[in-house]
Amino acid sequence: MADNKTVVILGGSLGGLHVAHALLKKHQQYPNLRNTHFYWNIASVRAIIPGQIPDQKMLRELSEALQPYPSNMYELVIGEAISSDFTAKTVKVQLSNSAADAQTREIVYDHLVLATGARYTNDTPWKANSDYQSLIKLLHETASRVEKADHIIVAGAGATGVEVAGELGYEYGKTKTITLLASGQHVLPGEQESLSTATENELKKLNVTVQKGARVKDVARSADDKYTIQLENGQNLECNLYLPTQGMVPNSDYVDTKHLDPKTKTVLVDEFLHVTGVPGNNVWAVGDIVSKPRAGFMITQKQASSVAKNVELSLLQSKEPVPAKGPPVDILACAVGRGRGVGRMGSIRLPSFGVWLAKGRTLGMQLVDQYISGSIA
């Protein structure tokens, strides 16, 4: 029967919390493995501007999200997955609430959902790379350094880099030097040239300098907190705050490499979001650990809905899974400061005001309550 089955969800961010709510609403009993707080990292690009977003709006306790459900329906385990055995149906967790973090726990599952997301390889707050206290400290330190810096260099001209540069330009474009480094000849690489050009124009309005063909080779930080950035073209740049936005990697170290893309280290999945090559098809993956077709909020939402439905079909109804559905159209929305934005719906350009209204105005902060209450699922 379904009531004696165990579903383990690894990760408590957008994908993991969505799946958790969806299953708990169906009275599915399972333990939940995740960090202590839900982090709305989408707004991290604005949270580094002093005074813009209070901590309590960026981070909410996951226990608050689970509190409405009967305690015998779930278990909140605080820790980090360090290994997994898909044949034995177990995951090993390094517990975060034990002395010196030395204690581990092995959890047996019937179904496993991988929703551990991704991290940046540098010390930045764009993702929750650490525990709650460390993340709060990093947000505060970054905001303090932003406030003090005269020249800020943002490296990486993808969506995150554009949004970081836009926020800095909006707040400080007339009082600080803000530079965005693009490794290629366009910002938002891979997008239509017209969209890249429009983005550069929006940044220019905010007094952000875009330097193209500027791939970072090395970064040196001096004792007096000055940075020297060496580019592959031989040029050296100096600033007193360096904010890299490149170098995102999936949190898949606990997964056997035979289930990973050898180049990207993302988890390989089929059309149902099963992890490929797993006996019994009882391991699923959603979000940035998959990055298929690409990393993105709306894509993660749809994947989470599909996985929750398929786990329910399997455990509650003993039915076959259905192919995962993505968004009906691929949408890119990129805030450029607190007043403008760029984006597209499919191949159709979106007006700046529309992107601001849909995303840039709040960076989706109104959705945090929906994730905590479960109404999002």
TrEMBL record:
Pfam families: Pyr_redox_2
N-terminal signal peptide: none
Keywords: FAD, Flavoprotein, Oxidoreductase
Domain FAD/NAD(P)-binding: 6-293
UniProt-listed InterPro entries: FAD/NAD-bd_sf, FAD/NAD-binding_dom
Coiled-coil intervals, chain numbering: none
Keyword Oxidoreductase: yes
Domain of life assignment: Eukaryota
Family in the record: Belongs to the FAD-dependent oxidoreductase family.
The protein, known as: FAD/NAD(P)-binding domain-containing protein
Annotated source species: Podospora pseudoanserina
